[in-house]
Amino acid sequence: MAEEIRPIGTPLTTPEGFVALYRREADLVLRFCARRVLDPETAVDLCAETFAQALRGRQGFRGSTEIEARAWLLTIARRQVARYLKKGALDRRARDAVGLQTPRLQDGDAEEIEQRAGVAPLRQALAEELSRLGGDQREALRLRVVEELPYPEVACSLGVTEATARARVSRGLRALAAALELRALTEGDPR
Amino acid sequence: MRVLDELEREIERVAAEAGEVRPRRRWWRSGAFLVALPLVVAAVAVAATSGILTGEPVKNPPGLHLNPKAGLGVAVGPGKLMGVRAADPAGGPDWALRMVKTSRGLGCVQLGRLVEGKLGVLGRDGAFANDGKFHERGAQIIQQTDCQQTDGAGQVFIAMSYIGLPDSADATACAARAHQTDQRPVCPAGSLRSVYYGLLGPQATAVTYIAAGGTVVRQTVRGPEGAYLVVQRTDPKRRNIGYFMPGVTPGTGLRSVEYRDGSVCRIISAQRLGGARNCPLRGFVAPKLPPVSHADLAATVRVRVGTRPEHPGPKVKPRKGLPPIPAVRRITVTFRARRAANARSFYTVSTRMLHGSKGCTFGTMGPIAKDVVAGSVLSQKLYFPYRCHGTLKINVGYTQQRRPSQMPFDIGGFGNAKVGRAVAKLP
């Protein structure tokens, strides 16, 4: 669906412009993070860190439309999510630098975030797509992603070489990503 | 959504504090690099948005050797910048706080001026030869670092009052008032600040204080640490300046502390002499330490009394008009530590002079503030004026700090002799 290209009214380099960006995109960034980490609390942390990084780097934003601002923000969020998934730890540097306090979740917040981000259907879709994968790939994914075993141990458990174990995990992830992408296109993606 | 609304308020606050900045220019397109090149190779850097030049970072005093297993330990990591900010009465960069944990498990607050998310000092009032630049002060710098033992949940409760701190945030560069033994220049008039800051824990919600015009100001504390920070001009008529008071509960600089349960602790009370009331440490979790008795610790305490006059430490040339530094006698106390020691459970040595000569009826108390392995032999050196004669009573104790104290390593009183006692004759 095409979106209207609107120019940014107030530049992001002003406090008003940056707050307006937050008001426009906060919900989207939070859903974006929640769908990727499947944990509301972590998603709020990632969302806060994304905006803190954006605030620090707002001088470098060169776009002039709301779509460009969104793309810039989602790039920051994507990097945050990737760093979190790779290292298993949340980055706090930008928040510490600007003195941003992350709000704590209270009763009902987690459920609301999960509902808005469509986490429950996503989990269900993930389970369904996992069950469609070949047994070898599914088991390799389970050992590597769920059990967080290193590749040599995954290979040992599966009785294959480490290279084969890596290939199975990689192919399994690619197949899952493609299947979920297809679902998003056909069922409507809340991002 | 509630959590996004709360985050929005935080975004509004930090965006307003950060202010407006200029978009970064693409300098390579304008040919400006021909002008900028000499600046790039210059030794200074300009902070991106503040317009304040940045100079060399603050260093620890030369000759300082910090031991990660003794004293306060050394800072672990870069620390956490607290969300609280305070404007200086004369303008310029805000004041801010940072919390760091040390290798010995203590929690510390560090105070300074904030430029581009970095804590540091300003080159004025004698600091950095009045170069007007900003100098970052890293977490490992001991200057303006105050620590307390953490509670059982790892939380830090600390309350500091600094009366007469230069607005550079560098207390070492100038003297708040002239003194015979202080060679530093006196701080310029109007440059001194009274700064009240600390961490009140997870249950505190706000503090109130009386601002310059006499109005009562309410400040919401920041973060789960309960950080607060108040900066005011020091009254130029005030005579007792240039000192700080550590503690775990705020002093008379604040008016009250408010808590989540709706209760309020009024610090200033007309009925109390001195005016300060200790506020409760809501949310403090007492550390669980296994009880240790005299039977667990008892050991023979040996004392060796020095026979020669000594001048320990670095050689200092006596200044004109001041009497020479008197010689001292070394007393070495040795015992076997049957239990391990750390920052929360530690050995202590206290002394009391019995039947001392004139001017020598004093005592000393102090911790052996270092990590100790059970079974090792500990040796502690004490120094007493060489001219003093008499009988010295020595108690070696063991303290387990379960409750907060005004300063870390509070040893209690002279009576702690859980390890043993000894008596020495000073000839």
Gist?
Chain A has helices at 15-37, 40-56, 66-87, 93-98, 109-117, 119-132, 135-146, 151-158, 162-187. With 191 residues, chain A is mostly helical. The longest helix of chain A is centred in the last third of the chain and has 26 residues, at 162-187.
Shape of chain A: elongated
C-alpha Rg of chain A (nearest Å):
19 Å
Helical region count of chain A? Answer: 9
Largest interface (CB < 8 Å) = A-B, 39 and 37 residues
Poorly predicted spans of chain A: none
- The portion of residues forming beta strands of chain B comes to 25-35%
The helicity of chain B comes to under 10%
Count of all domains of chain A = 2
Helix content of chain A: over 70%
Order of helices and strands of chain A: HHHHHHHHH
Structure summary, number of beta strands of chain A: 0
Descriptive keywords:
heterodimer, A: 191 residues, mainly alpha, 9 helices, elongated, B: 427 residues, mainly beta, Immunoglobulin-like, 4 helices, 23 strands, 35% strand
How would you characterize this protein structure?
The complex is a heterodimer of chains A (191) and B (427). By secondary structure, chain A is an all-alpha fold. Chain A has two domains: 15-112, no CATH class; 118-187, Arc Repressor Mutant, subunit A. Helix content of chain A is 72%, strand content 0%. Chain A contains nine helices and no strands. Chain A has helices at residues 15-37, 40-56, 66-87, 93-98, 109-117, 119-132, 135-146, 151-158, 162-187. The two termini of chain A are 13 Å apart. Chain B is globular. Chain B contains four helices and 23 strands. By secondary structure, chain B is mainly beta. Chain B has two domains: 43-266, no CATH class; 294-314 and 325-426, Sandwich (Immunoglobulin-like), CATH 2.60.40. The longest helix of chain B has 17 residues, at 2-18. In chain B, 8% of the residues lie in helices and 35% in strands. The interface between A and B is large, with 39 and 37 residues.
SSE layout and pairing:
The complex is a heterodimer of chains A (191) and B (427).
Chain A: H1 15-37, H2 40-56, H3 66-87, H4 93-98, H5 109-117, H6 119-132, H7 135-146, H8 151-158, H9 162-187
Helix pairs in contact in A: 1-2, 1-3, 1-5, 2-3, 6-9, 7-8, 7-9, 8-9
Chain B: H1 2-18, H2 27-30, H3 33-41, E1 45-46, E2 53-54, E3 75-86, E4 95-102, E5 106-115, E6 118-122, E7 134-136, E8 145-149, E9 158-166, E10 192-199, E11 204-210, E12 216-220, E13 227-233, E14 243-245, E15 256-259, E16 264-266, H4 294-297, E17 302-305, E18 328-336, E19 345-354, E20 363-368, E21 377-385, E22 390-400, E23 420-426
Antiparallel strand pairs in B: 1-2, 3-4, 4-5, 5-6, 5-8, 6-7, 9-10, 9-14, 10-13, 11-12, 11-15, 15-16, 17-18, 18-21, 19-20, 19-22, 22-23
